[in-house]
Design goal:
The complex is a heterodimer. By secondary structure, chain A is an all-alpha fold. Chain A has a single domain, classed as Transmembrane di-heme cytochromes, Chain C (Fumarate Reductase Cytochrome B subunit, Up-down Bundle). Chain A has 9 helices and no strands. The radius of gyration of chain A is 19 Å and the shape is globular. By secondary structure, chain B is an alpha+beta fold. In chain B, the strands form 2 sheets. Chain B has a 5-stranded mixed beta sheet. In chain B, strands 3, 4, 7, 8 and 9 form a 5-stranded antiparallel beta sheet that branches. The longest helix of chain B is centred in the first third of the chain and has 22 residues. Classes of the chains: A mainly alpha, B alpha+beta.
């Protein structure tokens, strides 16, 4: 066993090696994962087009990489955004609920210790991080997966605040009001897109992880 | 052999075709339906065009109508939009419309009449002087545009509910439709029409509404997006039929509640 998974104790090893012999990702993880790919693709690309109608920063997204139509693309982008939101939320709530109640989040994502993250990050950057056992997440993976779930929660709650700043005015106030919620929504999107870049690159570099997310093992 | 299609001197064929095309009845809703998915997101996802564009557009509009019902359920008739101090007012408050500011309709306040129709007992039109004599309230609230930006303004006028009661409107009717001078229109749901902050606005920032903000009458609805706050209102109908609206017919969500 090479270095990189030193945070895994003997009992964890026994359990995870038994589990990996069966399945790495149960079917509900795989189904919600690929539904989420579709939902996020539509939400992000339509969201960029909506952003373009009133940019928060000094740039817009090239229309060619966005979804939309009608005047400046806005009516179509809004239709896509407020249709895909149901897919995103229903799928996301299902995933988080199953993750919590099945114990998968606790088992896979916890604990996240800063010292482990630093150690595994260093190992990853020097090419020494093991991918021997896909069923055990290293500390960097744990941090990124927990972080992107948190960003997903923030993007949905800030989105609800922008959508209904009167009916859910208390929630909007948590984000500092309507205008501030737009910035929070954008930054949470940026965090998710940043995660996706790393996530997709690593999935390509370690193809068996992609296979596991499709076939389960 | 003589040419069938002669070129008529002095007529630009291209312009003629354009002009003719304008005369062909082609509701914008149809145009939108065809255009809504022109980017071909479905194609991008699947690598083949398995869902034809009309089907996808119809599905999107069906979900938008579902979202209307969800928003009607979420709508709390007693929930008030946040109000702000004078110091928070956005200055200058932006003009917004589907035409440039100089094209905003100029209405003569002397001859102006507000037409009232539909399910109401008293259909007598109202002069501006009669409207100004109604009890008025001021609100400093945020206008949220469908584009995302927002601006805080100060609006003074009569609660729409007060007016609807005075004209003997059927408050169990489903909708109120507003007709505007320049051809714009909106239909809103009755619960929103009766919301305490829904206002027939005569003044902006304590001054008689300037033309750019909708002289002489704007319907200010802080629980709706800006495009459902019609300006230059000349007619109001209480109805059980959804009469649509300018942007609502062009793909924007009908309820568009805040």
């Amino acid at each position: 066993m090479s270095s990189g998974t030193a945070n895994v104790g003997p009992s964890d090893l026994a359990r995870t090696s038994f589990r990996s012999a069966v399945v790495i990702h149960p079917y509900w993880v795989r189904i919600t994962h690929w539904i989420n790919v579709i939902a996020m693709f539509v939400m992000i690309t339509s969201g960029w087009r909506i952003y373009n109608a009133s940019p928060l920063f000094g740039f817009v997204f090239p229309p060619a990489i966005t979804i939309g139509d009608g005047l400046d693309g806005l009516p179509g982008a809004l239709l896509w955004h407020f249709a895909a939101m149901w897919l995103l939320v229903v799928n996301g709530v299902t995933y988080v609920a199953l993750g919590i109640f099945s114990g998968r989040f606790r088992r896979k994502l916890l604990p996240i210790r800063p010292t482990d993250v630093i150690r595994d990050l260093r190992a990853a950057l020097t090419g020494k991080l093991s991918h021997h056992d896909l069923s055990v997440y290293n500390a960097v993976q744990r941090l990124l997966y927990a972080g992107v779930i948190a960003a997903g929660v923030v993007v949905v709650l800030s989105g609800i605040s922008i959508w209904k700043p009167v009916q859910f005015r208390e929630l909007a106030a948590v984000f500092g009001g309507y205008d501030a919620a737009r910035f929070v929504h954008f930054l949470a999107m940026a965090a998710i897109v940043g995660f996706l870049l790393v996530h997709v690159i690593l999935a390509i570099l370690v193809p068996k992880s992609l296979r596991a997310m499709i076939l389960g093992r | 052999m003589p040419k069938i299609r002669k070129i008529i001197p002095g007529v630009d064929a291209e312009l003629l075709i354009k002009d003719a095309a304008k005369l062909i009845p082609n509701p914008s809703r149809r145009l939108f339906l065809r255009g809504a998915t022109s980017l071909g997101a479905i194609t991008l996802l699947t690598g083949c065009d398995i869902v034809d564009e009309d089907t996808a557009a119809k599905a999107l509009l069906a979900i938008s109508r579902f979202n209307d019902r969800v928003q009607a359920l979420i709508f709390n008739p007693n929930k008030l939009a946040p109000t702000y101090p004078e110091s928070a007012i956005t200055r200058p408050f932006p003009f917004n419309g589907y035409y440039p500011e100089e094209d905003a309709p100029e209405i003569d306040g002397e001859t102006y009449m507000l037409e009232v129709g539909g399910l109401v007992e008293n259909k007598k039109p109202w002069t501006l002087q009669e409207l100004y004599a109604l009890p008025q309230e001021k609100q400093i609230t945020r206008l949220v545009c469908v584009e995302g930006w927002s601006a805080i303004g100060s609006w003074t006028g009569t609660p729409l509910r007060e007016f609807l009661e005075r004209i003997g409107a059927d408050l169990t009717a489903k909708y109120v439709w507003f007709q505007c001078m320049e051809g714009y229109s909106n239909t809103i749901d009755m619960p929103t029409a009766l919301h305490p902050q829904t206002q027939m606005t005569f003044r902006f920032d304590n001054e008689i509404l300037p033309t750019k903000y909708g002289f002489p009458l704007r319907i200010r609805i802080p629980t709706k997006l800006g495009f459902k706050n019609p300006k230059y209102v000349i007619g109001m109908h209480v109805t059980n039929r959804d009469l649509g609206g300018y942007w609502e017919d062009r793909g924007y969500n009908w309820f568009s509640g805040n």
